UniProtKB/TrEMBL annotation, chains A, B:
Keywords: ATP-binding, Carbohydrate metabolism, Kinase, Magnesium, Metal-binding, Nucleotide-binding, Transferase, Zinc. The lineage of its organism: Bacteria, Bacillati, Bacillota, Bacilli, Bacillales. Belongs to the ROK (NagC/XylR) family. It comes from Virgibacillus profundi. This is fructokinase. It catalyses: D-fructose + ATP = D-fructose 6-phosphate + ADP + H(+).
Length: 287, 287
């Protein structure tokens, strides 16, 4: 079976063709511009290629409830050109009427891909956080992607402030929510330079302190079998180890499960699918 | 069908007999002592009564995974007499071998009961917080109770501190986690008197600030269709209204759904089943 996959991000759209084993045969990266220009390139990539179905993992907020008439439509977003853009309907119109499509958020797709073929393979639940310019979160519980009222937006949860942190926070909605304190943007504002150029130990201890609370709040709410951290910020060497260390310190033995207490290096992990988690996850949506 | 239900709490065990419509015919409240004395009274209540199945909602942590050999056993708890007590196995031994039993946490049971017959009736998801001496949380997503690695313990999540709060926090594990800042115990320690005797506005504004963050973090992680607050602290007149107010203020329009923006008084609510949420929920577990 040939499966089309689109990871629709705010910076780039990654399109690919693969199969039901999560193998990607070919892919392309298209810079995200306005919807018309971007979708034109997306359609050009798939043009003339045999595909049987298609999965789309998109930046949010997006309608992921299949029962709603606006299923697959981008909702209210600061990316004004994309506000209320009917992403699924537009793409669908270029393909045969009966071809199956699935849409979810890029982070839910990544979580699902990791469960299917990556770091959470063989488990029933996982949470995936991507820490880049912003912080996104996807979750799978009991083998099913979490939707509910909308979809998770756990990047904006509230956490406690590091005692030495007096940065006001960079989130335009909440100021010092998690994203406002720990996303790439906030690191840049707080320290005056991009993450890759930050070499002081204090900055990374602080970052780990916030991501450790992220993991703890995820553990205490979702109770997942695996917590995965991806995104550019996690490329910093040693950060994931620091997160685990602070996690154990802050959790302080509260959840007495070996997975969490003795085996934290297998509980809080980097993505097993690396940078392909989103694309492979989008593909997995439609299986 | 006659269904037995036990709400096994740290202070009292409420036992009841009801039916598949959530009607309770008779019930009894037994003070919680050591396991032997307590279970003796529980069994005496059910003795000679015709019941076909039984649901148990217990204080946690407790093994809720049916596939584990210690299903229904209390895990590591500060209530030392109950540590590793095989609650289900002990009760089961007094009933016919083939009688169906189900065990979950008291708060998961309450969440499930509210979904079945209470404030979240007709929905697929809800989160239930009980704010009393401690803070407990149960969650239902896609019609199923959340378990995963263990079960939710969202009462211990981290939240941001109120700017005027310098109380160190009362949680023996985490100090200033949610429970450490907002449970009845912490109110008592901070203000020097029990919640019922606290009449200063500042105290209740602060409490609402923490519970509003609880609701926001629940919304952003679980994305539930309803958030329910029960427990003794919520008996304070006007508290739920204050929670809604702070919720809207802190969320600041981030999740653009009418349920959350325009209709918050139907989104953050008191239990529909009142003090019977736990007992009726325990009953519902076995349907």
């Amino acid at each position: 079976m040939n499966i089309g996959a689109i990871e629709a991000g705010g910076t780039k759209f990654v399109c690919g063709i693969g199969n039901e084993h999560g193998e990607i045969f070919e892919k392309i990266s298209i810079p995200t511009r306005n919807p018309v220009e971007t979708i034109k390139d997306v359609i050009a990539f798939f043009d003339g290629k045999e595909i049987d179905r298609m999965g789309i993992g998109s930046f949010g907020p997006i309608q992921v409830n299949r029962d709603q008439s606006d299923y697959g439509t981008i909702l209210e977003t600061p990316k004004t050109a994309w506000k209320y853009f009917p992403l699924l309907q537009t793409i669908k119109s270029y393909f045969p009427k009966d071809m199956p499509f699935e849409v979810d958020t890029d982070v839910n797709a990544a979580a699902f891909g990791e469960l299917k073929w990556g770091a959470a393979k063989g488990l029933d639940s996982c949470v995936y956080f991507t820490v880049g310019t912003g912080i996104g979160a996807g979750a799978v519980i009991d083998g099913k992607i979490v939707h509910g009222l909308l979809h998770p937006e756990a990047g904006h949860m509230f956490v406690k402030r590091h005692p030495k942190d007096d940065f006001v926070g960079s989130c335009p909605y909440h100021g010092d929510c998690l994203e406002g304190l720990a996303a790439g943007t906030s690191m840049k504002e707080r320290w005056g330079k991009a993450g890759v150029d930050i070499h002081n130990e204090e900055a990374w201890e602080m970052e780990a302190y916030y991501l450790a609370q992220t993991a703890i709040n995820a553990l205490l709410t979702y109770s997942p079998e695996k917590i995965i951290f991806g995104g550019g910020v996690l490329n910093h060497p040693g950060l994931i180890e620091k997160v685990r260390e602070q996690f154990s310190k802050l959790l302080n033995g509260y959840i007495k499960k070996d997975e969490v207490i003795k085996n934290v290096e297998n509980y809080i992990v980097l993505p097993g699918l690396g940078s392909e988690a989103g694309l492979k996850g989008s593909l997995a949506l439609v299986l």
